Amino acid sequence: MPPANPFDDDKLHEECGVFGIVGVADAANFVALGLHALQHRGQEAGGIVSHDADEGFNSVRRFGYVRDNFTSQSLMQTLPGPIAIGHVRYSTAGSKAAVIRDVQPFFGEFSMGGAAIAHNGNITNANALRRELIERGSIFQSSSDSECIIHLMARSLQRNIPERMEDALRRVEGAFSIVAMTRTKMIGVRDPLGVRPLVLGKVADGWVLSSETCALDIIGAEHVRDIEPGEMVVISEKDGVESTFPFRPRKSRFCIFEHVYFSRPDSVIGGRSVYETRRQIGVELAKEAPVEADLVCPVPDSGTPAAIGFSQESGIPYAMGIIRNQYMGRTFIEPTEQIRNMGVRLKLNVNRALIKGKRVILVDDSVVRGTTSRKIKDMILDAGAAEVHFRIASPPTRWPCFYGVDTPEREKLLAATMTEDEMCEHLGVDSLRFISLNGLYRAAGAPDGRDTDSPQYCDACFSGEYPVAPSDMIEKGFETKTAAE
Amino acid sequence: MPPANPFDDDKLHEECGVFGIVGVADAANFVALGLHALQHRGQEAGGIVSHDADEGFNSVRRFGYVRDNFTSQSLMQTLPGPIAIGHVRYSTAGSKAAVIRDVQPFFGEFSMGGAAIAHNGNITNANALRRELIERGSIFQSSSDSECIIHLMARSLQRNIPERMEDALRRVEGAFSIVAMTRTKMIGVRDPLGVRPLVLGKVADGWVLSSETCALDIIGAEHVRDIEPGEMVVISEKDGVESTFPFRPRKSRFCIFEHVYFSRPDSVIGGRSVYETRRQIGVELAKEAPVEADLVCPVPDSGTPAAIGFSQESGIPYAMGIIRNQYMGRTFIEPTEQIRNMGVRLKLNVNRALIKGKRVILVDDSVVRGTTSRKIKDMILDAGAAEVHFRIASPPTRWPCFYGVDTPEREKLLAATMTEDEMCEHLGVDSLRFISLNGLYRAAGAPDGRDTDSPQYCDACFSGEYPVAPSDMIEKGFETKTAAE
Amino acid sequence: MPPANPFDDDKLHEECGVFGIVGVADAANFVALGLHALQHRGQEAGGIVSHDADEGFNSVRRFGYVRDNFTSQSLMQTLPGPIAIGHVRYSTAGSKAAVIRDVQPFFGEFSMGGAAIAHNGNITNANALRRELIERGSIFQSSSDSECIIHLMARSLQRNIPERMEDALRRVEGAFSIVAMTRTKMIGVRDPLGVRPLVLGKVADGWVLSSETCALDIIGAEHVRDIEPGEMVVISEKDGVESTFPFRPRKSRFCIFEHVYFSRPDSVIGGRSVYETRRQIGVELAKEAPVEADLVCPVPDSGTPAAIGFSQESGIPYAMGIIRNQYMGRTFIEPTEQIRNMGVRLKLNVNRALIKGKRVILVDDSVVRGTTSRKIKDMILDAGAAEVHFRIASPPTRWPCFYGVDTPEREKLLAATMTEDEMCEHLGVDSLRFISLNGLYRAAGAPDGRDTDSPQYCDACFSGEYPVAPSDMIEKGFETKTAAE
Amino acid sequence: MPPANPFDDDKLHEECGVFGIVGVADAANFVALGLHALQHRGQEAGGIVSHDADEGFNSVRRFGYVRDNFTSQSLMQTLPGPIAIGHVRYSTAGSKAAVIRDVQPFFGEFSMGGAAIAHNGNITNANALRRELIERGSIFQSSSDSECIIHLMARSLQRNIPERMEDALRRVEGAFSIVAMTRTKMIGVRDPLGVRPLVLGKVADGWVLSSETCALDIIGAEHVRDIEPGEMVVISEKDGVESTFPFRPRKSRFCIFEHVYFSRPDSVIGGRSVYETRRQIGVELAKEAPVEADLVCPVPDSGTPAAIGFSQESGIPYAMGIIRNQYMGRTFIEPTEQIRNMGVRLKLNVNRALIKGKRVILVDDSVVRGTTSRKIKDMILDAGAAEVHFRIASPPTRWPCFYGVDTPEREKLLAATMTEDEMCEHLGVDSLRFISLNGLYRAAGAPDGRDTDSPQYCDACFSGEYPVAPSDMIEKGFETKTAAE
């Protein structure tokens, strides 16, 4: 059981990454590489399932980084075969200690054979589904919402696995990008809103499904296209890619925070370079919230592209005012009191000789609880900065996400309880400005900004407008914006 | 026994970092933090020795990162007391498999009490010393050259440990920055040329010795001054810092590669910001070797400051054309063939959407064997770059270092066997330019460049001019420049 | 995943031991002790489930010995509460590599709350049940037959867990001694034939269920009585022990091999001391098969009580002719060729000075494949014995067990293919005699021997008369005695 | 660092076993088997050094059992070559936590090449030697007395290693049986009194040295002879065995406790079977201290041979009244309070059905602190025994051993502070009798008992007559018998 991270890193976290491949020798090796490239989407644990004609299904699920678990010959030899899928996950905040049976992919043996599924997203009616399934005699092995899907499939009356999956997913509300496999077929699905990403790639004779394109690059696969919102693809060596749209069509609402922070800057989503969107956010931010200063510095590493954009638009020199320690890991087992209290100083150090006496603009991607922002401000002032101006590459984060992102409870979100001015005072900086929601949409490729009547993205964390009602949470007492205001 | 890194990272490597503190409670905790901040100077192993009035000397030496070994309460409780020193090390290229008894600090029990020493540098007459000591009945426990010092001390006729250390070091040739301790005193020494860095800091009532200032920052210590070349300081809670200069005075020859690559950019050495020196190298390089292009991209992470300087001087936009995977570690145990062949792609990915169709200037800190440079060039061209121009922030590396840096044998250094033009053709890039030795000296604070008669720095890796004759190597057949040319 | 034992130890193996307790603080600690005392019933893996009013159900399942897993404070603190059950298991011969999800107790969440079960025995219609359950939408997590029970319970229409368990067990054929638990109740059941043992104990205010009485002794519990064949007890702190007999009554058929080898000699089963039964087997054997000799030596350790009895009846001195190495474990990871070939010599050594020139009677509990018997004979002759006579404390083992014992396939049982004389010749000993089935029954408390029409025990491994038809095996082609002969 | 055993097992412990072989392929594999057979002489740690013409010296030292460390192919491949020696050790009572650098064999590089030594025994003037060596500039790496030998060798003026060893051992007082090796030669030495055992064996073309003959048996080696007290043998493939007697001759004083407890019963020492000596002790004891009773039961496992002898002489039936749990290990990491309090009940259980109402004679090998004896008596009475009579197969243990045995301080030895009657009362048994010293000598082959003027054995632990003055201990204040009385 891995220890929790005692260090507040004060970010929202993507909860999962998925990857699958069919039609290549030793498919699991490719999955390991793909998951390594998707590690930023989930660092707590990973799993791979493969199928081989002789050996049947095999599965390995482990806590820790992909590179520490899925790189050794002896382990990878236990995952033979030409088809494999995998999953990396981040632990959810509220849960009890992590247990290996919660690690995906999940596997189920049906009367027509086995299937494994890996799920990125979150099922908003999982509690209700689980109650119903238990009532009817299903036995759950994990605390994961995703396990509902495999039980719904087990009870479907359909005769093959893709149809059973359709059956199951029609009962499911929320966000899902799924990669699944049978003995010979790989299946990819995105929910009708397409909240989470999923892309299709090709390498030699093999087909690939991946959360992001950066994982295609590492195995040298070509990016064919994105899986569409509401699309299901069934892929086999024999028949190639077969596409259907089993759900009622809806206008897509891709997660805009994927552009702000979750996805890797070298990925391309919906035809847009994530890096370029982030740089453009910096440009917009420099226009919206200019300030006189000597240096523009990113908060490493996620603030870098926006800081470059801000510097380019403002003409203020870009500089590395904060240096990241490359040897910092995520977790410490039973740390000393001193280590526990170090927090961000274990990871970041101010470039004192550079900062001293300077007016500094710090560009960060987001402010969640604000605890890290305060510590960074302290470090910068200790180093002798004349002024500190925060520029944030996203609007204030005011609402929790229920679609597969680990968010603190609403009352812990700084922007849920304070105005921008109050936050500025709370953080003790000379100025604090967030990009506007319209500015963010413009940077993300909507020249006219946000379409208020029918927004182009899911931006519930900023706007409180949830495209799918979070029914489990409402049952538990969560008040949506309309209720709250 | 840790596995060797199967991945060519194609850099020179500092072999060690040292840190010590006296006069604070739980001194070993501070040492752990200091070593974490010095981890870039040695990733293979680390050790800490502490002394407590009740418990005597205690020592822990481990393979792996500081953060994985020296952060747990249960371990740190075995290192009590108000005085402690520590060491991180990089394995030397030629040695057999790493063994824990080669990990420093080394400890010796003398008739007047115990002493521990941690050594950064390299003893160039170690083989001769070792032969002599064995002949006289000393038993070596390690294959490390540094162990000679403790045996020389054991056989000294002096009555106290600092004087025994003086005695010992007068027999030693080469480069050394040493932090040592007795039951109550911390000792710091730099060789007469001052090849390796060593700085003095102060935190509350405690005194600190450290390879670099970045390790003072992490514990909140003030940078008092650098230890001088040829200086020995003996520090105790009771008497504070006592300084002597036991060696014959010589003109200092600090390692210029510390500025180019080894030291962290947030450190200050000899009064100069490492970051600023590197940025200035980029400025000089843009003046010396301009080229028309669309983007200036660093090779992450070491090329970043010079790339910023190059962009600022040339006016060509700075961009993140190569993205580093943050979850890449150094070593893999028994890796699969596929992992073994991935090499740099496990660590770096090209930002394809940005690079496509562009003329790209890549700024890197150095070219050693050139293997990584070729792979990066291939990745950039595969992504569709129109042109690739390499600009290198150091002169061609033509000679091995014998003063504590891990260098390949001379014949494996690309620049030892090829001209700049041949290297350009070998790497297959549109242009390749190195900064001149004079340009480097200017960036490092010598406005008139290198003083040919009496160079201000040690630059043997570029010039072949060794300030201390590498006598062990000459005995083994190494030909110095004069001999070779 | 534990490695398989490369050393033929040539015994039948009990597959499981079960233990539970309710009504004491830190119940899991008692379970750990009880399982330690039952370790001889299963060495591969163990598991404990506990329930606490605040913490709910907790579960730990591990490969390896109880003493290596369930003794540390930090682990046992994760298993709080006044009720707990546990299980030790031996791996079944034919299965693939062991996986942790096959380790019991199994847990299921039902609509009226959770339940955990630990099963000793074997379900002879498990394949048919599993097929049916999967057809109806159950998802199996393990390859264990015992998991059927929890799925049958999940689908029962009864309103409480004990009734659901009755419902489930009425569908189950074969042998079972089960210890189960809900949040507040412990449940014990034995199949109608009572093939496997299960006893009831009392310690302070707590009630205990255990496979054997030796596990009552270790926690200082009093042996109250055996659970009856076909009996179900439901035990709670509040209501004490409630007993029902939910199955159609049948005459009991307790496993006679428990007396011969499986149970510990310090246990009492059905009112009989196991040690005394074994000693009495030696007495019967000396009467049935006397021989002139100098020494009676046990094959350690299981042959000791019968050897003592043989010596007492015959008057031939008892001696330790074979010495066991106490530091021998069960498994070796990736052993050298030499270790692999050592086999029994790693564990046993002949007392050469004692044996030389002597006529030796060796008393062993059973002959399964005969491989170990041959090696022991070789060792004894190498040491210079004049004659070697084998006396075996059980009849020839001719048939596999399907009721929870790990037996080789029938063709590998020496006695399935050879007569007693052929075996004697095959083993190369001066004489070989097995106790008769009647003699065994007499030693086990039936003064008139075996009741041929209605045997008092299950002795299928000797007689081929299976009291429950092994339907899964018959479906796979197994031929019972009538069919075979 | 292995945890200390929290369970009082209340025995004296041999501190070491040694084994070496020359002239066979993969010599280290034989050493591993030999050490496994000698594991009873030291369970804490073990080490093997081998030499190969290509690879030079290699060494592996590990905490834990031989079977857990020295059986894997991958490890044993690191120990190639035709010559190897090994050592198992028990930790000494008073020392701080165990550290790997204290684990033997010790290795030293001399000007004429390397040598490794493994030492069984104890150097009684080690403190004085260590002081002198440090004064002259030797650096000790361990806290082990045995390291003195290698430093004395390093400073010898002799030209070859066997002569240096003679030189060194002439300075050493105390008990030593040493197995050492150079690149091509194996050396065996016993101190002039021959306190510890050492035997010579032969297997194919290879020569073996071992603490006991049971380790010859496991590799199929023939027992050639014992090494004589004061003898040094130098053995090579080329020249065979060369014997010298470098020390001043003295009458031998072999440790009589090797016969009582330390050695394995299947070993032959000085021409006597250890098993037979122990059985004979039981016979003598039955003559010296008869008592009416129903059963004679050994305290497992060490009391078994004497119990057999007692039963045979007295005619009272032999029975297994106490059953040992085979799955008990020596150490527990961070055990729960309950485990800590279990003590002997984790290991032993009374055979209640057998014992109830009976008059029981318990035969044990020795009484050290008496703590275990009390617990066993309690268990026996709890089980309903009518009477309990202890018969002890050694005289009262009144004095500590300074020749390589782990003994409690004198004041903790029960017999040092109580008479036999007081002990009987303290233990709460119906009678308690120890064998007489003369009876023990008779059983050990001296028909006329102990020669008071010149005893045939070292029996200092019983008599307080130390054949070599324990000079280090006397310096620390230990009072010998003459002084004490």
Automatic annotation (TrEMBL), chains A, B, C, D:
<keyword id="KW-0479">Metal-binding</keyword>
<feature type="binding site">
    <location>
        <position position="364"/>
    </location>
    <ligand>
        <name>Mg(2+)</name>
    </ligand>
</feature>
<dbReference type="GO" id="GO:0004044">
    <property type="term" value="F:amidophosphoribosyltransferase activity"/>
</dbReference>
<dbReference type="GO" id="GO:0000287">
    <property type="term" value="F:magnesium ion binding"/>
</dbReference>
<dbReference type="InterPro" id="IPR017932">
    <property type="entry name" value="GATase_2_dom"/>
</dbReference>
<keyword id="KW-0460">Magnesium</keyword>
<feature type="binding site">
    <location>
        <position position="458"/>
    </location>
    <ligand>
        <name>[4Fe-4S] cluster</name>
    </ligand>
</feature>
<comment type="similarity">
    <text>In the C-terminal section; belongs to the purine/pyrimidine phosphoribosyltransferase family.</text>
</comment>
<feature type="binding site">
    <location>
        <position position="302"/>
    </location>
    <ligand>
        <name>Mg(2+)</name>
    </ligand>
</feature>
<feature type="domain" description="Glutamine amidotransferase type-2">
    <location>
        <begin position="16"/>
        <end position="238"/>
    </location>
</feature>
<feature type="binding site">
    <location>
        <position position="461"/>
    </location>
    <ligand>
        <name>[4Fe-4S] cluster</name>
    </ligand>
</feature>
<dbReference type="GO" id="GO:0006189">
    <property type="term" value="P:'de novo' IMP biosynthetic process"/>
</dbReference>
<protein>
    <recommendedName>
        <fullName>Amidophosphoribosyltransferase</fullName>
        <ecNumber>2.4.2.14</ecNumber>
    </recommendedName>
</protein>
<dbReference type="InterPro" id="IPR029055">
    <property type="entry name" value="Ntn_hydrolases_N"/>
</dbReference>
<keyword id="KW-0808">Transferase</keyword>
<feature type="binding site">
    <location>
        <position position="255"/>
    </location>
    <ligand>
        <name>[4Fe-4S] cluster</name>
    </ligand>
</feature>
<keyword id="KW-0328">Glycosyltransferase</keyword>
<dbReference type="InterPro" id="IPR035584">
    <property type="entry name" value="PurF_N"/>
</dbReference>
<dbReference type="InterPro" id="IPR005854">
    <property type="entry name" value="PurF"/>
</dbReference>
<feature type="active site" description="Nucleophile">
    <location>
        <position position="16"/>
    </location>
</feature>
<feature type="binding site">
    <location>
        <position position="401"/>
    </location>
    <ligand>
        <name>[4Fe-4S] cluster</name>
    </ligand>
</feature>
<keyword id="KW-0411">Iron-sulfur</keyword>
<dbReference type="InterPro" id="IPR029057">
    <property type="entry name" value="PRTase-like"/>
</dbReference>
<keyword id="KW-0004">4Fe-4S</keyword>
<dbReference type="Pfam" id="PF13537">
    <property type="entry name" value="GATase_7"/>
</dbReference>
<dbReference type="InterPro" id="IPR000836">
    <property type="entry name" value="PRTase_dom"/>
</dbReference>
<keyword id="KW-0315">Glutamine amidotransferase</keyword>
<dbReference type="GO" id="GO:0051539">
    <property type="term" value="F:4 iron, 4 sulfur cluster binding"/>
</dbReference>
<keyword id="KW-0658">Purine biosynthesis</keyword>
<comment type="function">
    <text>Catalyzes the formation of phosphoribosylamine from phosphoribosylpyrophosphate (PRPP) and glutamine.</text>
</comment>
<dbReference type="GO" id="GO:0009113">
    <property type="term" value="P:purine nucleobase biosynthetic process"/>
</dbReference>
<keyword id="KW-0408">Iron</keyword>
<comment type="pathway">
    <text>Purine metabolism; IMP biosynthesis via de novo pathway; N(1)-(5-phospho-D-ribosyl)glycinamide from 5-phospho-alpha-D-ribose 1-diphosphate: step 1/2.</text>
</comment>
<feature type="binding site">
    <location>
        <position position="365"/>
    </location>
    <ligand>
        <name>Mg(2+)</name>
    </ligand>
</feature>
